[in-house]
Backbone:
């Protein structure tokens, strides 16, 4: 939408189209500068226009803001709502998903060219799942899981972690469980009592799902009617430590029924699940993380 601005002097200049979007950005700059700190102001200002920054960069910056402080403050919950709103806007094209990764019968082109012959090394996909790393620092990890038709991510946990899952292609079924014992340090037995939640089906047109540190923290993800892909945000990352407990490890489970109770048995890494990796090919972003030394 455009409208025209005319000079207020006696001499008239040609009318110039000005996008309403840019005027809204000016308004955002003025109002936000008055009410929030500079870091937050810069983030909102940049995300006000897709010309200035991409959708995925908005998500990354909001994720950093959300998970860099206390998880119990009101600001955290407000920021988590805002992060979910930003992720809701994502789709496969906004993160530059290579659609060839979705097919079993596709061939991946290796980026390394043979310097002598100029040929391209080609290999067939073997893994049922491909992981694309997008961003990671000491507080949050962001990536994309690509599940080929019939593939699934087996039942696993995210100890004391938050997560945001946004389907960007296809549909998935998420089956979640809540451990009865909320103390992670006590969840080392071979069988864990759990509450089985109702499964949910999520597609690319649906809103993001939020994973909590305990409620629904153990889950599995299955494809439905074809391949699927979803953006996955986890905080803190798996590589971090749990205070007074130790390493934050991902464990796999299987459901076992003992009388009327639901138990989850800890199992070794499933043989029918493994993944490979692919490079991120989406919009570039000006965010760099330097680990503390």
Residues:
């Amino acid at each position: 939408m455009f409208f025209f601005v005319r000079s207020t002097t006696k001499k008239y200049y040609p009318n110039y189209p000005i996008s309403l979007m840019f005027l809204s950005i000016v308004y955002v700059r003025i109002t936000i500068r008055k009410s929030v700190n500079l870091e937050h102001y810069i983030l909102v200002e940049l995300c006000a226009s897709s010309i200035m920054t991409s959708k995925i960069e908005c998500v990354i910056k909001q994720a950093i803001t959300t998970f860099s402080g206390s998880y119990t403050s009101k600001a955290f919950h407000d920021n988590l709502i805002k992060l979910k709103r930003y992720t809701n806007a994502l789709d496969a094209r906004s993160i530059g998903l290579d659609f060839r990764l979705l097919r079993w019968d596709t061939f991946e082109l290796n980026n390394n060219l043979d310097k002598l012959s100029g040929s391209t090394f080609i290999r067939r996909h073997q893994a049922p799942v491909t992981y694309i790393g997008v961003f990671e620092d000491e507080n949050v990890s962001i990536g994309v899981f690509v599940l080929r038709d019939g593939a699934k991510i087996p039942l696993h946990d995210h100890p004391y972690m938050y997560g945001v899952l946004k389907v960007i292609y296809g549909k998935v079924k998420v089956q979640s469980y809540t451990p009865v014992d909320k103390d992670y340090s006590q969840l080392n037995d071979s069988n864990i009592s759990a509450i089985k939640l109702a499964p949910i089906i999520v597609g690319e047109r649906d809103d993001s799902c939020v994973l909590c540190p305990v409620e629904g923290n153990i889950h599995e993800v299955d494809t439905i009617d074809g391949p699927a892909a979803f953006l996955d945000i986890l905080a803190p990352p798996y590589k971090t430590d749990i205070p007074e407990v130790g390493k934050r490890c991902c464990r796999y489970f299987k459901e076992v029924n003992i009388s009327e109770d639901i138990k989850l048995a800890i199992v070794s890494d499933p043989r029918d699940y493994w993944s490979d990796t692919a490079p991120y090919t989406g919009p570039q972003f000006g965010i760099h993380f330097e680990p503390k030394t």
